[in-house]
Design a protein that fits this description.
Blueprint lengths: L1 H4 L3 E3 L5 E3 L1 H6 L2 H7 L19 H13 L1
Antiparallel strand pairs: 1-2
Length: 68
């Protein structure tokens, strides 16, 4: 949650995790790989009864992580 809230990660239209360029710049490569690398491109496992995030919100968030 904290990494998402800080704009270090986001999710694409298929809910796969994206790593921001800022994350890659701020953390040593080893830390990024150990903590985030194995999850990059992996889709969230969303329960069938879960409320999905608003797609417009995620699109705006994605723009922020690449522009910020």
């Amino acid at each position: 949650d904290a990494a998402f809230d800080r704009g270090l990660i986001s999710f694409d239209e298929s809910y796969r995790m994206l790593l921001s360029t800022r994350l890659k710049k701020e953390l040593p490569a080893k830390a990024v790989e150990q903590n985030f690398g194995s999850y990059a491109g992996v889709a969230l496992q969303i329960p069938e009864d879960a409320a999905l995030p608003d797609s417009a919100f995620l699109a705006t968030h994605r723009e922020r992580i690449y522009l910020g």
